[in-house]
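Chain A, query sequence.
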Amino acid sequence: MTSENYYLTLTCPNKPGIVAAVSTYIFQAGGDIEEAQQFDDKASTLRAGFVEIAKRFELTWNLRAVKDLKRVLIMASKLDHCLVDLLYRWRIGELPMIICGIVSNHPREVYSSIDFFDIPFYHLPVTPENKPEQEAKLLEIIAKEKVDMVILARYMQILSDHLSKELTGRCINVHHSFLPSFKGAKPYHQAHARGIKLIGATAHFVTSDLDEGPIIEQDVTRVTHGDTPDDLVRDLERTVLSRALRYYLHDRVLNNGATSVVFSD
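Chain A, predicted structure.
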């Protein structure tokens, strides 16, 4: 008889007996717990949702079969290193997901060397005048394709406050970790000109506060005067973004107000 695996994610105010009640229920239902991790935040007050147990412990929960892959929309601009990396990791099975589409503010010809397989491509050029219209089209695509998460794979357009709020908790971005030292355009070039010796990248949830959303993953690496600004951009950003996405796809990320709780592999 073939068994089926599931992810069970739940949050609630802490009190004695929660783990015992949940594990007993799973056992009585014929299940087995292969792995369990927990995080205790005594300040949180979250509401209910796990049948009878939820009524007792005020759980907010989600149950998803491992085979039910999450649906992801990738957005990119001319810099394609993160896009190419995500497609490769998806193709070899490292990132188990359904890619619902690729959205860019540049035409398909910009990516002529990239194999998009049968993934739909949406060209949504953005100008100050048509930005509200194009963001409305983007939300239509997200709704139509039942997108779980939007990935900004070096998408070089600032989302409006309205769109950021619409995508709260379901949009991940990646950027350099030079803030606040190097702001504005070309931060890597600014850092290189100053002879920076340590660089970093951050993947985080998108909020209306630009580049200040809850952090999911970060990393740093040393650089020398021989490294070019382009060298500084590529490797770290694609590694950090792919890790953050992998955590999300495996239900290892919990939104905890202004922070994210990440249960590592």
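The CA atoms of residues 3 and 31 lie 9 Å apart. Residues 229-249 form the longest helix (21 residues).
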